[in-house]
Amino acid sequence: MPGDPPPLEFEPSTPLQFLPGMGAARAERLRRLGLRKAQDVLFFFPREHQFPPPPTKVDELREGQPATFIGKITDAELVSRTPGKSLFAAIVENESGAVRIVFFNQPFRAEQLTLDRSVRLSGTPKLAGLRWEFSHPKYELIEADEADPENAENKGEILPVYPLTEGVKEYELRRLTRRVASVLAEGAKEVMPASIREAAGVRLRDAGIELAGDLPDIATTLRDIHCPPSAETLTAARTRLIFQELFVMQLALAMRRTSLTGRLQAPAMPCTAKIRQRIVRRFPFELTADQNRVIDEIAQEMGRQFPMNRLLQGDVGSGKTVVAIFAMMLAVASEHQATLMAPTEVLARQHFQTLRKILADSRVRIGLLCGSLTAAQRRETLEKVASGELDLIVGTQALVYDIDFHSLGLCVIDEQHKFGVRQRVRLREGGVDPHYLVMSATPIPRSVAMTQFGDVDLSTLREKPAGRGEVHTYLAVDSWRDRWWDFVRQRIAEGRQAYVVAPRVGDETVASDSTSGSTGDAADALDDLDALDEVEDVTSVNRTFEQLRDNVFKEQRVELLHGRMKAEAKQDVMQRFADGEIDVLVSTTVIEVGVDVANATVMTILGGNRFGLAQLHQLRGRISRGVHAGYLCVFTDGERSPEESERLKVFEQTSDGFELAEADFRLRGPGDMLGKKQSGLAPLRIADLNRDVEVLQVARMMAQELIDEDPDMQADEITGLRDQVLRRYGNRLDLGDGA
Ligand code: ADP
Ligand code: MG
Predict the structure, then answer these.
(1) What is the rounded average pLDDT of the residues 618-646?
(2) In the predicted model, what is the mean pLDDT of the chain?
(3) Could you give the C-alpha distances from 221 to 205, 206, 216, 227, in angstroms and in order?
(4) What burial class does residue 394 get, using C-beta atoms within 10 Å of its C-beta: 0-12 exposed, 13-18 middle, 19+ buried?
(5) What residue ranges line ligand 1, CB within 6 angstroms?
(6) Residue 237 belongs to what H/E stretch?
(7) Does the reported pTM lie above 0.70?
(8) pLDDT per residue over 495-528, tens digit each?
(9) How many A from CA of 394 to the centre of ligand 1?
(10) What secondary structure does DSSP assign to 498-512, as a single string?
(11) Which residue lies with its CA nearest to atom 4 of ligand 1?
(12) What 3-state DSSP class applies to 603?
């Protein structure tokens, strides 16, 4: 159109109450959806779309063909000739004509379908004389203005479905968004230049995403998402918005990653073939191909001056510890210190023993830091760490994070299941960052790895060391108990050992034994994470223990382990179990992580319905560590909820940790895993990490390429995009100074 465009009816910044036909009361209700200004409405995206068949006009009705008809009741009559028998009939009319509806013996219809009400009918009509008749149709009473033939609903158009709030009807929102889009979409600011939309279109199609051409521009997108003219344009619009949301997120993550690697310096600790060989020689077994591959990945990265930030994921029993030990010894070979942190003292001590065994005849000096040390022992250890007299320091996380190292080169964190923003070790004034290696047996679904872990490299151990006995998992009913205990006694008679994991009972409070656990200063309390295990039920595990000792395993050596025992007592029990001096270990989930006793092959889980999938799998991992087949029997208590049944079924059928993690993700959603509050990522408005993982992959690749080329996003054509990245993620990801 030539000349100036006509002035707009309203501007993006116009408050809602000043929109045509709005009014203060309705505007107030819309505020609950977060809508304040016209602009907000433009970016208020539908949850989904419906494709309802168009309502039928009278002359389009066909005998026996289902149809929808919308109109107003212009006549209604309830006839009742004999008691108990009635006929209700009404005429429903619109501009195309009138139909009749009838209900037999349902007199209450007369109360709903009153004169002048508007209704939407659906059913299969018949010709009765000259009129079409719907007998017992389905119907919905609607507002008079909903029946307006000009409404999208009444024209057979694709319908957006918006999130609603009380007092706001779907058709009202549709009308509002349609109006706003028709006025404002054209002027919306485009942040994705055509070159990016085009490239993304190609990549997305290559990835198998259904898309006809390039990603549409923003004006088209906004118009089509609110009032799509066709299924195809709708798909294009949705794909663009999903892509954009994920692209912005991935740009933020890529920027952070790049700015971190540019800023930080780590000691380079190169690995020669000779060093590698010298380290590997110490292991009592051949490394698996996977272990070798991951060791290469790690060695290569540790050889550089940028801090490694790597997550090593591998199913329980896949042999992560060896990889960690390799990395630690590589650090020592370059005359740096390395630390290995575990979440519990039991596990820290186990790692300490493993290292001592492997390094028995070497000059490597190893220290242990955990809650049960005396103050004097602790002081001595800390001094040696600070002066460099210790090379390897194994300890519990809470203690190790805050100590002074002489020259820390590598920090390994074992069994990190909560994927929050990671704490960093304390650095000396002017010191360089260490390399980080985080290990987890809870595999991370691809989508989570690409978001939460956007700035972390992943290594994966898929293969397990050869010769592993398989674990048989049984989901038991109570009547099996006696037979199962027989079975356990037989295995013990053959020389094996058994775990019994006692139930945790929901919120039942634990009879607190305040003198147990801590032996030193305040830090001790923090040290012992398993003592903080708030749902652990000591009463119940005690009872189970006594009952099993006195009735079921009279002839066997039965001991108890739980997080509230004193550290030395715990250690003593673990040691004797490892040495084969205990047949049955009755325990809480203290043994959940990492504990490695190859001769223990039978496990009983009581109250298994109360455990999460990841936890069950961790527990099962305790008995899949040796050459003997493992046997796990899960008992449940009380009625299982449908969720619990589903979870247990998946657990029984799958022993692959990766499959389980994906299933868990499906069953629970990403919430838990991302640890929402700490995830540092903005909530997504239209993308869904589960559903849109392919788009996510493309967005991630393109984001990294863009940032590699233009780390601070300085190019003119992407300033809009850059603003969006900073607005949405700047504070959360601390991008301010990097940009
Ligand atoms: P996780 O990955 O669960 O931490 P671990 O590192 O504790 O697993 O290893 C589990 C067990 O497998 C340990 O007893 C370890 O000694 C053994 N192991 C690790 N790698 C190999 C291998 N390549 N061959 C044989 N046994 C191995
Ligand atoms: Mg482990």
Answers:
(1) 85
(2) 84
(3) 18, 21, 6, 10
(4) buried
(5) 285-288, 291, 314, 316-322, 441, 465, 594, 596, 598, 621, 625
(6) helix 231-263
(7) no
(8) 999 999 986 543 333 333 322 333 222 222 223 3
(9) 18
(10) EEEEPP--SSPPP--
(11) 320
(12) strand
